[in-house]
Amino acid sequence: MKPLSARVGTFTDSVIRRMTRISDEYDAINLSQGFPDFDPPRELMDALAKVAYEGPHQYSVTYGAPNLREALAAKFQRTTGLTADPETQVLVTCGGTEAMMCAMMALCDPGDKVLVFSPFYENYGADAILSGAEPVYIPLVPPDYRFDPALIERGFQDGAKALILCNPSNPCGKVFTREELSVIAKLARRYDAYVVTDEVYEHMVYAPAVHTAMASLPGMAGRTVTCNSLSKTYSITGWRLGYLIGPEAVVEAARKVHDFLTVGAPSPLQEAAVTGLQFDEAYYARFNALYREKRDYFLAGLDRLGLKHNVPQGTYFVMVDISDYLALPQFQGWTDLAFCEWMVREIGVAAVPGSSFFREPVNNLIRLHFAREQATLDEVFRRLAKLASLRN
Ligand code: GLN
Known about the structure:
By secondary structure, this protein is α/β, with parallel strands linked by helices. The protein is 42% helix and 14% strand. The chain has helices at 15-26, 42-54, 66-80, 95-107, 123-131, 149-157, 178-190, 248-261, 267-277, 281-304, 323-326, 336-347, 374-389, and strands at 29-30, 90-93, 113-118, 134-139, 162-166, 194-198, 224-229, 242-245, 308-309, 317-321, 349-350, 352-353, 365-369. Helix 4 runs parallel beside helix 5 (123-131) and helix 10 runs parallel beside helix 13 (374-389). The longest helix has 24 residues, at 281-304. It starts with 14 loop residues before the first helix and ends with a helix.
């Protein structure tokens, strides 16, 4: 047989989603792929039930149902202060995943360089390869995940066309300050580059951290492609609804890619989701408070067990440092992946090996998420106690 695509051969399937399959196989508690174990808001479930009988059930406009695009533009206006024309600047996609892919395909030709912070959400690696772009990694250095602006400047000087910014950042929970964003924005303007953002965790930001949209900084609306999703904000990851908002020319190109990749996101779900976008500010405040409570509860549990971790300013992810365990005789020479596989089997908790997020050779971190009911988190603590006991 002739060989398959060499390009596809250069990356693996998602380690995050693979961990979910392994977790299911062993009936473990899945803290790997980020999604909640609780229901979406009642209003959304009711809206979905109504749509089942009233429709629509056929294709919507390929680039998004008009009422959903209008609702997205209105929310964008409320959260960023920016006006986006729903007719020309909004594209509804199958999840934030497709939004990112469409943005990258719309901007990049083979050989173009894009700057990517490391650690990074693993999709960006595949997005770059599939769009032909060459990723140039900018380290976010633990423990506080700061970056060196000089490296970004060098990347732009070397011709990088765009920078990918995940803010709040998966997996490290960093929320970029306005000052940090201004530094990036200034360089993007100076070197005439685009910024592609992934802001799916915009409503999981823990005070005193605040979320600032890159597009809202001076001179950035015309060069920022804001990718986002309804998955996290409304607890509907399976609905596969995402979107991008950006300058007309980029959105027009992204719409072409989307048209031939997926034609459109599911129209019944688009119709039902409009209900969520009409929620008032109280919904987002409650949502944020819920996750803050879960974060504090989860971190306190990790502290009681003596597990070392970062304190995320945003997202529902925590990086746990397993160095002390890898130093034990039974784990000598193990990779973080082997450790995570062992954890699923023997501890009954699934995590994602940190190495799947870092460009640098990092082997001592695993990512856990806390989008779980309190009772589930309590069971996680009981199970992790078995891990912690190995050090006693
Ligand atoms: N963003 C989620 C995570 O990192 C997963 C999203 C997805 O699998 N599409 O776990």
